[in-house]
Amino acid sequence: xxxxxxxxIPEGSxxxxxxxRGRTALIAGAWLxxxxxxxxxxxxxxxxxxxxxxxxxxxDAVLKRFxxxxxxxxxxxxxxxxxxxxxxxxxxxxxxxxxxxRKPDSVLWxxxxxxxxxxxxxxxxxxxxxxxxxxxxxxxxxxWTEQIFRFFAVGQASAELRKFYDIxxxxxxxxxxxxxxxxxxxxxxxxxxxxxxxxxxVDAATFLPSKVAxxxxxxxxxxxxxxxVQLNPDLAASLFSVQIxxxxxxxxxxxxxxxxxxxxxxx
Length: 267
What we know:
- By secondary structure, the chain is α+β, with helices and mostly antiparallel strands.
- The protein has one domain: Clam (outer membrane lipoprotein receptor (LolB), chain A).
- It is 18% helix and 35% strand.
- The protein contains six helices and 13 strands.
- It is globular and about 55 Å long.
- The protein starts with 19 loop residues before the first helix and ends with a strand.
């Protein structure tokens, strides 16, 4: 169900001590990566590469059913477990939370562990809130709203995805039996610089997302496994309006998890 101003998956060749702030940045990297990709200069784009993949009847059949389900998505919610593997870490990091989506343009990632965090886009405005740090950030993202849904492959027809990705079908693996694995290879240079590929598993019965993995050229990876996926739940519009309490410092822009950023103010 598509950044010096964000924290991409750091590259490296050996483990090192990572600060609490750095660990938080790595945990929340899916959001920061997304925002960085969307805010990259448009001049960095290159024309779409033509796929050399031969016709695949099985892939076509899977995408046809995928499209049917995508066209019926009005809202979506799921619990998620996120695992980050990175050369700078001695061991994988695990985070948990819940994901909410409401078409046409509202999305919320709500982390509950190891640190409470909220990342939302609603009515063209991004809000990030880190209650433990008494820090929040906002930015107008109207121009990127469609790309946000495309990046996550949510609510997008395969024909639209193919404008930005080459798609192929691979074996889902023994741990994901009962799923189809769609491998998305970015065709835009600005995306390829940060994401080598996106691996997207859909449940073979419901064709709803069950797992997604982002891999970069350095071998760092971020995997999200979805649980309790709900199709078209009744989600109130107010859910996507992150409430910032008085006294919280609010930064205008995307910061490095509370680091130096654009002008700030106390809410």
